[in-house]
Write a structure and sequence with these properties.
The complex is a heterodimer of chains A (165) and B (290). With 165 residues, chain A is an alpha+beta fold. Chain A has five helices and five strands; from the N terminus they run ββαβββαααα. A five-stranded mixed beta sheet of chain A has the order 2-1-5-3-4, covered by helices on one side. Chain B is built from twelve helices and 14 strands. Chain B has a five-stranded antiparallel beta sheet. Chain B is globular and about 60 Å long. The chains are: A alpha+beta (165), B alpha+beta (290). Chains A and B meet through β4 of A and α2 and α6 of B.
């Protein structure tokens, strides 16, 4: 098994890294780049805990070979607060109590982000469809949908305070 | 995960040369939504994974010579957002909208769904009803066309040779649901998202004088070793006038077309029963105007 060199942009930064051909994007983001917000749930595309945005599209990073990100842009949850402010979606999830155990949250927010980037004012139904690949075993869906809806309606536009404060 | 080498060719010529040289020891990677779980669970052990997802020339949906042509690497998301399919093949768009979930739809491709050859393949059912064919090419540059219902030989097996790949999916222009062409799609899963079909039905009918059935194609998924065309049902419907008693009669005939199994999702008996129910629902939809 020959090692491959992978070049990609992760959360705005260029990365060149040696990977095994059988590593998934999830493996590389967590184990090589320490992006622990990318969770492994089922490992087969059923749960969405590993959701990242790859060239503008929300995908399961467990169903993506790392080498498939060659030349592409990857955004994970921590890429949303580069400016040291929490993202409006994160703020809204907190203020709506849309977090229980928190395991599904990074994936939920990435699916929501991909939706709002394409469709800034989705209907409640469109929000439900957009997160239908993300399972919340605490079953906090109602608050999650409300949190996303609040951002879509512009109620959380300002974003949050300094994350390091 | 099994060990393998990885290559991402830039042209179809390279792909054909590699798969011919590897004689069955290479696996093609398009969306990867089935391939990667299979690699992970050691179900397949290729020496080389050939990533074709970057061949951008093979991702398109267009109208050409009275036909709709879809590139093999077109994603399911692209099928759900296509204006052309909305006008010309509503049932394919509908089936795509109910395919797995949005994360999977962003990666999975129409060609991958067909080549995977699941008995429950969600794009195969509307494609059979639309009279679609796949176009293929092999390493000797021989091309052929295979009707979708003839592409599958057994669960997860196709007629494709080791050195042959699908390049395009094509079906005749119907102008569906305008004028005399009516179509309907019904899927039953255990939940709405991420559900493998328990039974699915697609129908395309050409009607004359509102209710007389000139031509009809009926397809079912997940009720036989492969997605099937229901010819017994078609024979009952063709040349008759659509009515409640005809719908009942065709539902009785569906038992002769299908051969379901019991699995973790449903029993064979339940599938037999639901095949009738879904067929009736689809025919009633057509009766109401598609």
């Amino acid at each position: 098994m020959k090692k491959c060199t992978l070049h990609m942009i992760v959360n705005g930064e260029k990365v060149s890294i040696e990977v095994s051909p059988n590593s998934t994007l999830l493996d590389v983001l967590r184990d090589k780049l320490n992006l622990m917000e990318v969770k492994e749930g089922c490992g087969q595309g059923d749960c969405g805990a590993c959701t990242v945005i790859l060239d503008g599209k929300a995908v399961n990073s467990c169903l993506t070979l790392a080498m498939q990100a060659e030349g592409k842009e990857v955004t994970t949850l921590s890429g949303l607060n580069k400016s040291r402010k929490i993202h409006p979606l994160q703020k809204s999830f907190i203020s709506h109590g849309a977090i229980q155990c928190g395991f599904c949250t990074p994936g939920m927010i990435m699916s929501a982000k991909a939706l709002l980037d394409k469709n800034p004012h989705p209907t409640r139904e469109e929000i439900k469809v957009a997160i239908s690949g993300n399972l919340c075993r605490c079953t906090g869906y109602k608050k999650i949908v409300e949190a996303i809806e609040a951002v879509a309606r512009g109620k959380e536009e300002k974003g949050g305070e300094d994350v390091t404060a | 995960m099994v060990e393998f080498d990885y290559i991402a060719p830039e042209t179809m010529d390279e792909v054909l040369e590699i798969i011919s040289r590897l004689e069955g020891k290479a696996s093609l990677l398009a969306g990867g939504t089935n391939l990667i779980p299979n690699l992970r669970n050691n179900k397949i052990k290729p020496e080389l994974v050939v990533d074709i997802s970057g061949l951008s020339d093979f991702s398109y949906i267009r109208e050409d010579e009275e036909k709709i042509k879809i590139g093999v690497l077109t994603s399911i998301t692209e099928l759900t957002t296509s204006e052309l399919l909305m006008k010309q093949a509503k049932i394919l768009k509908e089936a795509s909208g109910q395919f797995a979930n949005p994360l999977v739809r962003n990666k999975a491709t129409i060609g991958g769904n067909l080549a995977d050859a699941s008995p429950a393949a969600d794009t195969a059912v509307p494609l059979i009803a639309l009279g679609a064919k796949v176009k293929t090419i092999d390493s000797a540059y021989e091309m052929r066309e295979i009707r979708i219902e003839e592409l599958f030989s057994a669960p997860n097996q196709t007629l494709l040779k080791e050195d042959e790949v699908i390049t395009e999916i094509e079906f005749p222009l119907l102008a569906s649901d305008t004028g005399n062409i009516k179509s309907a799609y019904e899927k039953l899963g255990l939940r709405n998202a991420m559900a493998i079909s328990v039974v699915s039905v697609a129908i395309v009918a050409k009607l004359r004088d509102e209710r007389y059935i000139d031509e009809v194609k009926v397809a079912l998924g997940a009720v036989a070793p492969k997605p099937i065309r229901a010819q017994k049902v078609e024979n009952v419907l063709k040349g008759e006038t659509l009515s409640q008693s005809l719908i009942e009669k065709s539902a009785e005939a569906v038992s002769d077309d299908i051969n379901p199994i019991s699995d973790i999702r449903a029993s064979a008996d339940y599938r037999r029963m639901m095949s009738k129910v879904l067929l009736k629902r689809a025919l009633n939809k057509i009766d109401r105007g598609g």
